[in-house]
Amino acid sequence: MTISRRDLLRSALVLGSAAALGPALGGCATSSVAAPSVRSGDVDLLFWTHDQGYIDFFSGAVGLADRATSYRYALRSLQIAADDLVTKLIAQAVAGRGMPDVAGLEIGNFARLLRGDLAPELLEPLDDAVADVRDDLIEARLAPFSRDGHLYALDSDVPMAVYYRRDDLFTELGIPTEVESWEELARIGAKVHDQTGRSLGTVVTGTDLGQVVQQFWIPLLQRGGGLFDADGELSIETPEAEEVLRFLVDGVQSGFLSTVSDVYGPAMQAALKQGKIIGLSMPSWYESYGLKPNVPEQAGAWRIGALPPFEGGGGRTSVGGGTGFAAVTGSPHTAASADFVASAYLDPDQQVRRFTDLGYLPTRRSAYQDQRLLTLEDEYLGGQRAFEVFADLVDEAPAVYLSPDIQILNTVLAGALVDAYRGRSTPAQALTEAAETFRSQADR
Amino acid sequence: MSSLASAAPTAVVRGTTTPPGAAARRTLPSAATQRAPYLFIAPFYLLYVLFMIVPIVAALFLSLTSWVGLGTPEFVGLANYGNLLGDSSFWTAAGNSGLYVLVAVVLVVPCSLLIAQALNARGLRARDLFRVTYFVPMVVSPIVVALIFSMLLDTEYGLLNSFLHAAFGLPGVDWLTDPSWARASVSFVLLWRWVGYLTIFFLAGLQAVPRELYEAAELDGAGPVRSFTTVTLPAIKPVTAFVVVTSFISAAQLFDEPYLLTGGGPGESTLSLAMFVYRAAFERQQFGYAAAAGVLLFVLVFAVSQLLNRALQIGRAA
């Protein structure tokens, strides 16, 4: 029999397609055979996170978890970029192997798991693991990591936003540290900028879309709004959203707010070092991840305080960011993983340690009365008892609601915000345009 | 006579007697001999099928489904394609990719040719130094390139705006955050990175042009421009055609530069089609939608490449 080249190619194509597509599509389905769950004894957990600080924290919690549970844990850690972590998690789930047991999911990327059945397919509900302390957990930080009434991850933080200020320069320039409202601070800030070229706040206009949106989201939450409502529906076409955006646009145009390409990188470092930005509204973790790395020499010069409220209403704080720790489902170690996360995070001493070691605020309400935290003096903040500020604000922390389409909103809203800051569109136009584009792209 | 000739046509060659079986082996190869060439080329085609054909077939299948990346894909027919055609983001990305293609073909390729021509000039000193200098941007990691340019082009604290302000008193330009300037910035980086690489191809082509042709043209009274248009360009047409087609394909699938420099922003003003596909799949968990966009991108690139191949007569004898 003679085989032509065309026949050979056709045969290979058919066989190859069948061989590759079969397992590939089979792999998409959830496995129905599960190994028996490990209920005690030695457990080797694979832990994925984007932050070395979490690796150190969880590694240090192994002994405690051993005592608190029926397991003896060994922890292997892998550090992966926050975006890639979720992508790799899904890829490994399709492959059916190489899954982590515990994963730290940055809040923006956790939202990707809200699409379809990804969250229940990949993550173990933690309702039972937290049942004993559920009433003590700060409710506002359960919402973003919950779906259909189930909690899929424990937030690492209550990332409350406060106002950071260069106390030395505020004193030198005669800027009051207690003001009635954002609007009053904006009026003062405009004058300061006219006279000195310095700004009392910032908005982001760079290429990190999440940062651009976050700098709008933080004041919007403070004002009582949000990007999405409790049902996950878009909520940027509201009077609050327009008011907040107008406030930011006016601030940029008056010089009260400075635009930077990102709040961690070289541009921000230059602005801080040159004293061009001497105040800003950022979450609690910004001291550890923004100020200290960029301007360590300014230790002692910074202070924090509650955010000035908006004249139109809202609270004295907001939130930004967060990372949820989850136990991956479908593994013999799932129960052990859930117990590990709960014991490492919810133990009162661990709540304290998370703040002292990482700067992440406790997620249990009772920890806000802990004297170890309340009396803690922060050298970078000139010996200020920073925790007292947070304890005073914790009950005003707003809840954050997510949507699986938040990445779409980040794209369309970031562009609209920058257009508004640059005067290329009005705040109302920017928000309407973003909302319309969002609706045309969501639910695909 | 005829029977003798047909029975053993080679048996009397060189006046020796050859066994009939040996003659038959030469005229009618065995099945194993027939298959040998196919077995030799089989590894390539096997890999080609596994890593090229199968993914394309899988992408075609996925493009007809809605899939979040896990679980069973839900068949939706041609809905993804219908949605794509009505998606303003897709058309924005297509427009941007069209711009990058234009920059690559209309700007990068001619610049590369001119630089190659300059490097090929007789008596040029430090030729290797220039060649290395032009080629370096291509071998520098795109991450480093993005970092450097983002620092240079920062609106408030970038070196370029500081220079423009100090030297000319100009206000800051939003190089990366104004839609038009952002496109221009990505295009400039494209130019900066690719020119040196393509110059190498042109230089190889130019060095293969016989010197006699230029001497003959000079004797006929042709100046440098005339020599370039009547000798150089026709002589390097195959190289030019290759460079144009590969530049088109690379620019149509551009990802690194806009992804790292602007993230596709501000808004979607620098989003390329390849980024659109990536974003849909790996940021939004819309794998079916991403596959549909990928299929359209593939069809577009394939079709235009074929047209260019024919128009430029690539692979055909002159």
From TrEMBL, chain A:
The record's PROSITE patterns line, in alphabetical order, gives:
PROKAR_LIPOPROTEIN, TAT
Give the signal sequence positions.
1-26
Q: Give the record's keywords alphabetically.
A: Signal
Transmembrane region(s): none
> What top-level branch of life does the organism fall under?
Bacteria
Q: What is this protein called?
A: L-arabinose-binding protein
Automatic annotation (TrEMBL), chain B:
Q: Which PROSITE patterns match?
A: ABC_TM1
Segments traversing the membrane: 45-68, 99-120, 132-153, 189-209, 287-308
Location in or out of the cell: Cell membrane
Keyword set includes Cell membrane: yes
- GO-annotated cellular components: plasma membrane
Asked whether the UniProt record includes Transmembrane helix among its keywords, one would answer yes
Q: Mainly resides where?
A: membrane
Q: Which GO terms describe its biological process?
A: transmembrane transport
The membrane topology term of the UniProt record is: Multi-pass membrane protein
Q: PANTHER family attached here? A: ABC TRANSPORTER PERMEASE PROTEIN, DIACETYLCHITOBIOSE UPTAKE SYSTEM PERMEASE PROTEIN NGCF
- Report what the protein is called: Carbohydrate ABC transporter membrane protein 1, CUT1 family (TC 3.A.1.1.-)
